[in-house]
Each structure stands twice: as structure tokens, then as C-alpha cells.
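re: ur question from yesterday

yeah so i grabbed the chain u mentioned. its 554 aa long if i counted rite. heres the sequnce exactly as i have it in my notes:
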Amino acid sequence: MRQNDPGYQNPDNHTETDTEGLNQNKQGTGDGIQTDWSGKRAEESGENSVQKDSRRRRSLLSRVHIRKIDLNPQSPGEEEEEAGGRRNTELVAVTYFFIVLLLLLTVWIGYLEIFKRDDLNSNINNTKKAGTSGNVIRGSILTGDGTVLASTSIDGDGNETRSYPYSNIFAHVIGYASNGSAGLEAEENYDLMSSHTSLLSQIQSKDDGKKVQGDNVIVTLNPSLQQTAYYALGSYKGAVVVMEPDSGKILAMVSKPDFDPNTISTQWENLVADSSSGVLLNRATQGLYPPGSTFKMLTTLAYLREHPSDYTQFSWDCTGSLSRGDVTITCYHGEQHGQEDLTAAFRNSCNTAFADIGLNLKDNALRNVAEDFLFNSKLPTDIQSSQSVFKLTKNSSDGEKMTTAIGQGDTLVTPLHMAMVTSTIANGGIMMRPYLVDQIKSSEGDTVSKNNPSIYKKLMTPDEAQTITQFMEATVTSGTAQALSGAGYSVAGKTGSAEHDIDGGGTGTHSWFCGFSNVDDPDIVVAVIAEDAGTGSAVAVPIAKQIFDAYYGG
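ran it thru and got these C-alpha cells back, copy pasting raw so excuse formatting
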């Protein structure tokens, strides 16, 4: 037997596997069974050596536990390095996140400083300039020709008094600077309380224990036109706006009832208590009125856009009234205009013709035009103003469509806004941004900043503007504004009689006129509203004529 061979070595002594079970098996077979690894037959077994070897191998494999060997072992130091790498990655991500936030904040601050500086500085809610009142004498408000509209004087005891030489005439547009502030006094507060006098002057004032003089605000207002508009409006509540259509400069802005800014402190309680008359309200920019027939300028534009090639074929037989459901539209005093084309319907301000146009316009056609002209939007100006209102939708009733088309219903507009609409027509379809401040100058006369005319947007084509201008000319030569014809200047315009409900019952009528002079090369636009004054022809047109006459020296 090989087991008795002195040179025999049991292979079990050299395995790297766990042989505990194998040794137990061998010990259990010590009763004469001999193991032969060469595959020879065992002496005490009758089994075939191959079969026995196969059985033994299966038994061994079922009991052997294989040790797993990591071919890429990591030391503790390497594991710590890997964890540290993960922490570094997270730290880098957080760092980049805060860097991006810092960059965004820097861009935002830069945007505010470059593009929004003036808006923030002049905002009436910005009180940071209040702290400089002990160092700066409030600057003056002047017209381009040097006329003083507001100034500060100092008596021997150092007491300051704000004075308004024209008293009530510029009351709303210039405003006041005591008991709060309003008008340009509020909007230009930052500039009035800033000083760009020379360094030498500032040092001298400091050495003398005096305040430095604030900068002066130079406005676009024309004193002559302002006074004319003020007296022409007379005792009527209402407003007048005069502007240049090709620049956007406001030449006159009147609102009544008014107040004397020189006595604002002593009269404050009375003015605030008189809520019914709205004395402190600037009706030119914040008063909301139904536009009446002046809105027909926009209704006409909507019709032209739907009928660009056949609007000249428009035909309407006016019988004085038009009914749909429970709504009846009538022409003024039930007048029957008979057969009309579009020019005649416009110059006659025929309500039934335009009510019919409103019924037949496509869904949202009139709304689209109105919103193009900034109804339901903020006006593109630094002048504080109310937002005009247009409510007609595609789901509105026939009655609402008819009343809206003639400037009634729920539509509301400010006089400034109507002046801008008229200016757009006069300016060939381009709306300019209206403005009141021409430039800022130091007390020594050096220019600090200057405003230039700025286009808001092209809102209509030159052909559309020219067509509506022709209709407006016809209104003056042979229509509802004939009182403006025959002067030494040409005028194109539109009258309006806007009905409104009166508190306590009944109906009142506001008198409107919007138009421009020197039609071929327009000079000025005039928008007038006189509250509860009747028809546009009766009151607003004569007011406008006085302003045109004053401009041309008549």
C-alpha cells in the first residue's frame, strides 16, 4: 500500500482550504479503508476506483469553505482619503453655489444702479433724502425761459419758506412740499434736494455755516399756455392737457377744482375734509372718465383694420336709434342723419352707425386696439397717472358691444391718455413718451442731466393715421367741431359727450374735445374735459379754441 511507503505524502497536508471536515472524515474511516489519490482500487472496497474517487470528491467539495481574496485591497489610509475626496467635492459644489448667488446679486445691484437709479431716487416713497434737508436748500422749479414756478427763500433767522408765484394756476402739476408732497415736488424731490454746485462753493458754504443750494428742475411747461388753459376752463371741474405730438413734451396741464400751494399748510384740514370735490386730485392724470365719442377714433381704427380695402364702401342709414335686446342707442337728441358713409358718420358723431360697427367687429378686435393703445396698462411715463379701463370681451352682450363702441359702458380713461392717443394719430402712428422735466441744472447753471424725446412704440401705420386725420378734419370743417374752422391755422379733432350716472340718481354729460393744430405738420395736441358741461361742441371746443389762439398769438 502507498500509505505504507516511506516516501508517500498525503496531499491533505498541503491544501490552503479549510480541511476540518476532511480530517474528521478521514478519522471516521480508520477501520481499514485506505485512501489512494492516484485512483487505484482500495483493498477493502468493492467499488470501482473511479466511482469511489468521484464520490469522495463530491463529499470533499460539499464540506470545503473557500476563502474570498480581495484582489485590490485598500489600506485604512486610502479609505480615509476617499471619504475626504467626497467631502471636498461637496464643499466645492456649495462654494460654486454661493459664488453664483453673489454674481447674480452683483448683476442685480448693477442693474438698479444703472437703469433704475432715477426711478428709485425720485420715488415718492423714498425718504433717504429727508436726512439732507439740514444741508441743502431745496432747489427751484423753473420753465425753460427762466420763469420761476417754485422756489425757497430764507429770512434773517434762517427760516425757509417755499413759494409758488402763480398760486393756483400750476397747483396740481407742480404740487406742494409741505404736509407731505405731490406733483413735481414729490416726483423730483431727489434732484431738488441734491446739489451739484462747485466744490469751492460747497466748501465756502460750509465754512460760513450755510446750506448749499439744491439743483433746479427745468420743466417743459409753457407759462402762457398754462394760464390760458387755466382761465379757459373757468369754473368747470375738469382738466386740460396740451402736448407736442412729435416730442411728448407737456406744455400745459390744468386740473380743477384747485388749491393754493402757498397756503397748503393752513388749509390742509379743510382740503382733506372736502372729499366730495376731490380738490387735491390731479384730474388730468388721475381722473377717470368715460371717453364718449372721442373713443370713436379707436373704433374707427378697428374698422379700418378689418376693412383695409373697402372701408370707403361703408354705408349706414341713420334713423336716430338702434336697439338690440333691452338696449337702445340714440343719436344726440334723436337726430336722424340719414344715409352716411364712414366720413359722414365720423364727422356727425353718429352713435347708431358706430354702435352697428361695434356689433359687427370680430371678437376682441376692439379690445385688441384698445389694449394696443395702453388701456388696462400703465402709461409709459414718469408722470404718476391712473390706469385706463377697458372691459369688453368676446363674451359681452350686444348691448355692451354697442355702448363700448361709442365710448360709453365700462370704459374709463384719463385726459392725459386721450392726449396721447390723439398725439399718436397726429404723429403718423408713433406714440411718444410724455414728459414734464426737460433738464436738471445746478444753481450755477451747469447741466446735470437732460431728457430727450423718446419713442414708445409705433401703434398704427401712417396710412391709418392719415385716414383718421382726414375724418377729424371733416369734423372741424363740417361736423361737430365747426367752431374751430376758419382760423389762421388748421385743426383736426373729435368731440365727445360722455354720459355718466350722478350720485343720487340721474345722468350727467361730460364735454370732451381732442384735437391737434397745423394738420400737415402738427404743432400741438389739446385734450379738454369739462365735467357735466353738456356736449363737446358747446363747451370743450371753445376752450380748446382759446388755447390754439394763444399758441398762434391770436
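noticed a couple things. The chain has three domains: 89-121, 122-221, 227-551. also DSSP finds 19 helices and 19 strands in the chain.
anyway ttyl
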